[in-house]
Amino acid sequence: MNSTSLAFANLRDLPRALARLTCAWLALIAGAAYAETTPPASAPGAKSYTVTLKQLGRNYPMSLRGVESTDSVSFDVRADSIVTGARLNLQYTYSPALLAELSQINVLVNDEVAASLPLPKDKAGQLQQQVVQIPAHLITEFNRLSLQFIGHYTMSCEDPQHSSLWAKISNATELGIDVSPLVLPDDLSIIPLPFFDRRDASALDLPFVFATAPDNATLEAAGALSSWFGAQASYRGARFSSGYNQIPASGNAVVLVSGPDTLQMGSLSLPPAKGPTLTVMTNPNDANGKLLVITGRDGAELKRAATALVLGSQALSGSSVVIDRLDSVQPRKPYDAPNWLPSDRPVKLGELMPAKELLVSGYNPGDITVPLNLAPDLFTWRDAGAPLNLKYRYTPQERSSNSSLIISFNDALIQSQNLLSQDKLDGGLLSALKSDDSLGRETTVYLPLNSAALQSRLQLRYMFDYIKQGECNDIIIDNMRGAIDPESTLDLSGYDHFIAMPNLGVFKDAGFPFTRMADLSQTAVVLPDNAGAADLDAYLTVLGRFGHSTGYPATGVQVIQAAQVASAADKDLLLLASGANQPLLTQWADRLPATDADGQQAFHLSDLPMRVRDWFSPDPEANLRKTKLAMAFSGGAHSTYLTGFESPLKSGRSVVVIASGQPQGLADATNALIGGEDYTGSIQGSLVVVRGKSIEPLVADEQYYVGSLGVIKYLQWLISRHVVLALVLTGLGVALLGCLAYLVLRARANRRLQGEPERAVDHTEP
């Protein structure tokens, strides 16, 4: 074959070669596309979860206004997880007046731009949805998600605060995160990790495993642990479950073992305890799970080990330690719970939140919110309020007329302080300007505590006047600063502690009266005889709620059964019952407004369910809904109820009963104490029935008082409640004055009759 024929042959094969090349190229593109759209194989233990902006604390949609505005939420990633991917399902709308080529919404993670979204004209004013992929490398353990709006409505001079410059971000926007597990070391120094991780915004759900049926000392140790974890979980909420001699198939758990012998729990073998011992180890059923194993030769050693953990975890290290010595801690005092505002001294605002959170910038920077957790029994009757000595600083503007510091309490306006501009400062104030050009001021206001929620908030808001300069001269200069001095004080020391009981509202919100002592040293929990898993679950979860309220573990709680109740006569009693396993419900049936025995249920009812209002007055008399009907019936589902009454063992002590006719009903009661948006009704009064997600208060009969008042205040309060007593005391006062006048006049008359000269009065003019 010559060269010509060869060339011809190659030419004839060219289309076929091009076709093969094209097919290969298309296959390569298709393969690449498939590689991009097909997710990689998930690693063992990998999972995904989503949270909304509302779950991250944004209760209302983000409202972004002006030429540039930013709002943020924080989200964290558990320490035992590695982020492999994230996405934001953004729901938003924006002004129809915006210029599409100049306006945008930026998504930032930790101040890094993850995406910039255009704002096309044809979709303005409509709710839109956009999925934004977030690079995994932008996400760390602690993160800030920011939404930045940049808007313009004209190509020429514009007003940077024009009403057409707005965008709204729905709080239904979802953040999805993909994570793979990260194995943490077996080290006590990282406790409470991984059993509780403060980076995790979801509720804590932690199982407790007992090697055998626990004795009371073991249950006291478990209660100290659950209250400590409940204090750590805080607002997230915590639920605890219990089991016997069975390690969970996956995840984390707390294991409590007492006894001198070797123990085998499935694939877990534990050597004999040498004393109070704390150990962290890998869950033999799950390489990514951990076990916190607490062992002792008896229940007392178990309790010592648990106390060492909840009070001294910061000092522990290593995978296992034996507690050789544990000295008794200084006794707690009433009302000294770390989470409650001190009521025996003025408290500084710097004690309640970090100083950096008391600083703001910008023309309208939003609220500085200071949490105020009040003791439940502060006596605020006829009180002017708690004095707040507020010290603050701000940057005076050259001129303004409407700049102010707004002081609010639970969203109610208390006072508005005018922020003087430089042109209105006199010589003394001008000389008071600091080197940073800020002016310090001070004021005293009174916060009305009457009917204040136990979890209250002080809101401080700087609002600086934006002065328009005229067309093409309006430029926002971000030099406005405000600060609240951490030395500002709130003083509750003038209040007595006195409250009408029973009151299930303060039990639900603050665990009162049991939490009066933060360590529950004046509390006894009366468990049923042969308590089952449901009873123990309720006990651990309720003590977790107490820890959430106080911020302190229940190291002093006492666990008993009905036969030992006389030994706890000088304590407040918490009774748990499921079915007919609590003898005290029979012994104290005459004091209970509800009973469930022998197939018959009985309830006392008042007109509380028919009330028009849904709030309680600071005047106890206004809250009374005394029993007006007693009713008993047979058949039907067993009821779950909470009730309270004065202890039959000692006056001034309280009893709270959480009872159900069936074991699973106790979970309904503890879930109702934790609460949630899906519940109807509220826990208040002296008797409440719980049916699933429905809460029905039936009686509010306040029968006794706890606490004490000063003599004068007590007399004033007593007289205000009893008109007849006021009349009697008034009559006695009139009679006493009449007697004194009679005696004085009679003495003068006797002197006159006996010839004694009257004291002369000199009327001579000088």
From TrEMBL:
Signal peptide limits: 1-35
Pathway annotation from the record: Glycan metabolism; bacterial cellulose biosynthesis
One GO cellular component, as annotated: plasma membrane
| GO biological process terms held by the UniProt record | cellulose biosynthetic process; UDP-alpha-D-glucose metabolic process
Q: Which residues span the membrane?
A: 723-745
Kindly give the membrane topology term recorded for this protein: Single-pass membrane protein
**Compartmental location:** Cell inner membrane
Top-level taxon: Bacteria
Q: Which UniProt keywords apply?
A: c-di-GMP, Cell inner membrane, Cell membrane, Cellulose biosynthesis, Membrane, Signal, Transmembrane, Transmembrane helix
Query: Mainly localized where?
Result: membrane
Write out the function statement from the record. Binds the cellulose synthase activator, bis-(3'-5') cyclic diguanylic acid (c-di-GMP).
Subunit note: Tightly associated with the cellulose synthase catalytic subunit.
Membership in a protein family = Belongs to the AcsB/BcsB family.
Q: What is this protein called?
A: Cyclic di-GMP-binding protein
